[in-house]
Amino acid sequence: MARPLRIEYPDAFYHITSRGNERGTIFWVQKDYERFLSYLESATDRYGARIHCFCLMPNHYHLLLETPRGNLHAILHHINTSYTNYVNARTGRVGHLFQGRYRSILVEKDSYALELSRYIHLNPVRANLVRDPLRYPWSSYACYLGREGKWDWLQRGFILGQISEREREARRKYRAYVEGGMREGIEDPLKKVVASTLLGSEGFVDWVRQRWVKKISFHREVPALAKLSMRPDLSSIWEEVKRDFGEKTEGSRRVALYICHQLSGLPLGEIGKFFGGIGPSAVTQNTRRLLILLEKDKKLRKAVQRLKERLSE
After folding, report:
1. What does the alpha-carbon distance between residue 103 and residue 105 come to, in Å, rounded to a whole number?
2. Does 1.20.1250.20 match the CATH number of domain 231-312?
């Protein structure tokens, strides 16, 4: 199973989704919802999480949260593990409650927080649980309208502040904004996510790529990393190899296969397909043989190294 890319840094802003195992129920009775909310509160106390929005659905939940300490993993581990232990103790069940890894989307908050908050608050309406999101008791929507004050750890100021600096006016206009989405229908903002990881402008994506993705060690089981790391594509590598080593020589093909294996970040099967449908094992075997040859041939080794450096710039 492919691993998600986790990008963590101070003050990062995320949309989080976590579903029940095999899409099963995770909240059964009122006490379950209340207990989960207590873990959101303790995450703000212990780990400094800033929770801007939430919606707890019977078989999954949504959060908009900010991590001043850059500790997303610790926050979600606390929430999901604590709640799983509670459910297992209450029901006598064992094993995982949530389906694999939670989904985290790193968000450019100034551009998308408002839109995502509406998307989250309208979840119960889309699921036909209620007609009016204000009637759903397990989301932060009522708090945004000033109808519920018991969750004092909830951060409403940033999103409401995007509408108006005056709180009463912000609440009134926010309700109109959400209800307008109900009447007109809204597009899922998560369709704009880049590499299953980022939601934001081109400038934001480039900033994250340059500032944070470059620091993450490459791993073939994390496909999003290859998509975001600006690695050269197969065609570019092949063209550069042909320019340096000749267009129709067996040596250029061996070098191209080797460099694609080393630099592209793509699965071996995809590399093999590009080179005429050879299997993953053939790609690996080619790399082993070329490494032996490079140990013996100093001139070839220097030429390949220069090419790798040029492609990595």
Report:
1. 7
2. no
